Amino acid sequence: MQLYNKLSAKERAALIDEAGTDRLTLSFYKYAHIRNIEIFRNHLFIHWDALDVLGRIYVAKEGINGQLSVPAPNFIAFKKHLDSISFLENVRLNIAREQDVKSFLKLKVKIRNKIVADGLDDGTFDVTDKGVHVNAVKFNELIENPDTVLVDMRNHYESEIGHFKGAITPDVDTFRDSLDVIEEDLKEHKEDKNLVMYCTGGIRCEKASAYYKHKGFKNVFQLEGGIIEYARQVEEKGLENKFMGKNFVFDHRRSERITDDVIANCHQCGKECDTHVNCENEACHLLFIQCPECAAEMDNCCSITCKEINSLPYEEQKALRKGKGNSNKIFKKGRSEVLKYKQ
Question: How much is the pLDDT for 329?
Fold first, then answer.
């Protein structure tokens, strides 16, 4: 019985091309108390692998977080399987606005300590005791209220290319960094302000809402379904769109455009631009914003040094990387001294 992915991204891409089938990119999450996460994890992999589902799914004792690509003809069967799991019945599915059949090229179902890393070690903190969910209509009303503080629960490289008007956008690298920063900044307003939060699809601000309730904030709200669902409701109901720019996403697309506003700039020349790329040098892989002109001039690299390394034969590049730890620490998100125009 197969319990893990066995195909490379290249092999999977070829199979997708051969199939010629439309695929749906979607995401969902659910906080719940799961007892045997290994059995649950294997159950998901077996059923979803049979449906040709691809994506990145994290399961933990606190719940599940999934970002997936499902063949369109298999969507009903996939939804039926979700509904067969008691705590996932009728779970909200955030369907991507911009579809790409190769948004994911592997099925990875991974066991984690938490579905959202928060750096917290608090046994009295119940992640299911969340704040009030609000739809796009109520969200627009709340953020017009002078007694509301609107907070972006995403990281700096996400909010840089798009955010809600008037939102506080913490200059942080991770979700765990933002929790203490925001609590400290808003500690004087635990009772007299509405704390309204948003994120990509809702998973981070839902955990944050439970955390801030735990910390004594009285009026805590979150945008249900995050930016993805907000954009859908705005279009469907003809509401005023208070978001500007792009929504950063964690798959091969990197972003979805919500409005035509371009609020960021190329990190190399300063020109108006909001296209994220990864440095072509495999030893760097820095995520940064690069315009087409700089991409051509720099061979898709973040610096002259990386450009020179990337021009070397593959075996020489490989030799230069030998002995260096290939951890997440080297894959920095938009933080580098070589980026002259990084805000």
Answer: 46
